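lol ok so funny story. i was supposed to be doing the assay writeup but got distracted and ended up predicting the structure for this chain instead. priorities right. anyway since i did it might as well share w the group, maybe its usefull for someone
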Amino acid sequence: MTGLISYIPSPSHAGGAAFNSFAIGPLRLNIYGLLIATAVLVAVWLSQGRWRALGGLAATMTPIVIWAVAFGLAGSRLYSVLTSWQVDTGGDPVRAIEIWQGGLGIWGGVAGGVLGGWIQARRAHLALAPLLDTVAPTLALAQAIGRWGNYFNQELFGLPSKLPWAVRITDQTQLGDISPAKYRPPLVNGTYVPGTFQPTFLYECIWDLATFGLLLVIERRVRLRRGYLFAAYASVYTFGRFWTEYLRIDPAHRYLGLRLNDWTSIGVFAVATCLLLWKGRPRPGDDLTGQRLPHDRTAAERARLAGSDAHTFGGDSPSTAGRAAKEMPPSRFDPAGSQPELPIRGAKPPGSSDRPGSRAG
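and the output, tada:
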């Protein structure tokens, strides 16, 4: 119908300047940064709930996620500036720390996050495998939220498009950086004509949400060895990331016709899928993804959190740790619990000495 908007409008002022921040009094807030902060808070909240569902304490996850986020942001920015130094910094080293301007590499973020979480897990004497399962879906959901920062920065769009859901780009810097140059809109009086392009940020957001849902289904329906839900995340995410990356026309290093991140997606997908198929199938005696933690682990966690070693969980005082320990619902293994917990998927009835361990079908 004539007069209807047939594209996603760009977040811009009437004058054409990109709108990616706003002021509250003397304080100016960047929307990209706010979205990253929102994604982190959602990841923390969801990780706490998932860890508690396994029988752990919500308070345990907070310092682990904080360490993971700090290392993840550092790793993602480091990856980006190392692979796109001129684009991210313009040659100015000070701009390397300006993450609110964009330029975060998911590969460095995941690697840094796992490293940071592993360090804190070691300090807290926690096994890494159930933690990886806990955070895997939360990463996909956090990425879905963070991708909208690219929309407000008018960046990381794809090929020119006339589709009804194409995104309109008005930012002159972004239009001028389009590579290859044949996709740039025409110059009129020294100004690039705004154009409409494939909204790769939207495609990846949708894929991230689909990944989040699929991981929850895998956790409930597939007999998977504990710790390998993270490999499933890496495999599923990179499958979709390859195609969204392939559409992009922002500056990037290319090798044999593919962007660097496309090659990275291929490599991560191959490694994660092989690990999933080779090591992910449970054997007799293996713990399963989604299975409640053994009683000895949760008991030790409560004791450490409530006792004099509470500092290993990020500095909780004994009183704070004691209150957090009370969050733990009575377990069927807990003599103090008046009601038994319902059995989890794949668990043996009380009194059985064997844990589930048949191979996946």
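Confidence is low (pLDDT under 50) at residues 308-361. Strands lie at 21-24, 27-30, 167-169, 187-188, 191-192, 195-197, 254-255, 258-259.
back to the writeup now i swear
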